[in-house]
């Protein structure tokens, strides 16, 4: 069992003992997602794989927050925000906007002239540390300055 998954499992057990139903549900869902990913991969998962599953869970919840905000459901959006914060504790800190911007500028100066080319050069550098939407926004901003 990867150390990160063991940590999540330990936190799940602690949440069960303290009868924190919301946290039990959240962590149980993440562990189920990890086990499903392990079945799909047909191999033992690494910490990087577990981190990716957690990041997907965070992304899914952020999308839900947007929908709940659009639907004027602040109560449900607040629950999702709490879950995002709880899951964020399990993933390493993301890349800063300045770090992403520097890589984007370097890719543009290296000859990448459109969004796809720049994204192709920059995304592998930030795999697991930044969301594609964030990087895409910075790429479009930087390309807009040069147009």
Account of the protein in words:
Helix 3 (47-70) packs antiparallel against helix 4 (74-88). By secondary structure, the chain is mainly alpha-helical. It has helices at residues 3-17, 21-41, 47-70, 74-88, 97-109, 115-122, 132-146. The chain has 7 helices and no strands. It has 2 domains: 3-88, Hypothetical Protein Yqey, Chain: A, domain1, CATH 1.10.1510; 97-146.
Number of helices: 7
Q: Look at the helices and sheets and give the structural class.
A: mainly alpha
CATH names the topology of the largest domain as: Hypothetical Protein Yqey, Chain: A, domain1
Strand content: under 5%
Name given to the CATH homologous superfamily of the largest domain: Uncharacterised protein YqeY/AIM41, N-terminal domain
User: What's the level 1 CATH class of the largest domain?
Assistant: Mainly Alpha
CATH architecture of the largest domain: Orthogonal Bundle
Unreliable stretches (pLDDT < 50, length at least 5) are none
User: Terminal Cα separation, in Å?
Assistant: 50 Å
The total domain count is: 2
Give the averaged pLDDT, no decimals. Answer: 89
Largest sheet: none
How would you describe the shape? globular
SSE pattern, N- to C-terminal: HHHHHHH
Number of strands: 0
Round the Cα radius of gyration to an integer and report it: 18 Å
Helix content: over 70%
């Amino acid at each position: 069992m990867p150390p990160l998954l063991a940590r999540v499992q330990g936190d799940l057990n602690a949440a069960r003992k303290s009868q924190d139903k919301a946290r039990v549900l959240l962590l149980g869902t993440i562990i189920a997602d990890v086990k499903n990913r392990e079945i799909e991969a047909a191999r033992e998962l690494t910490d990087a794989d577990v981190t990716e599953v957690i990041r997907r869970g965070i992304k899914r919840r952020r999308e839900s927050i947007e929908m709940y905000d659009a639907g004027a459901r602040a109560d449900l959006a607040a629950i999702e925000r709490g879950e995002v914060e709880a899951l964020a504790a399990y993933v390493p800190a993301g890349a800063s906007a300045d770090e992403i911007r520097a890589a984007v500028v370097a890719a543009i100066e290296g000859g990448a002239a459109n969004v796809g080319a720049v994204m192709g050069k920059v995304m592998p550098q930030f795999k697991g540390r930044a969301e594609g939407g964030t990087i895409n926004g910075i790429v479009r901003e930087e390309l807009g300055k040069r147009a």
